[in-house]
Design goal:
- This protein is 60% helix and 0% strand.
- With 42 residues, the protein is mainly alpha-helical.
- It has helices spanning 9-18, 24-38.
- The protein has two helices and no strands.
Length: 42
Amino acid sequence: MLFDYKLTEEEYSLILRELKLSDPFRVAALNFYRDIARGTLK
């Protein structure tokens, strides 16, 4: 697996806070990796 890391909810919210929320690509990418880490996507 290329991206093999897991984020806690706290870490995820901290990252989101650091990002420019006006950048939809970064937000979408974070959501995608979060879903992978949670096992939502196979």
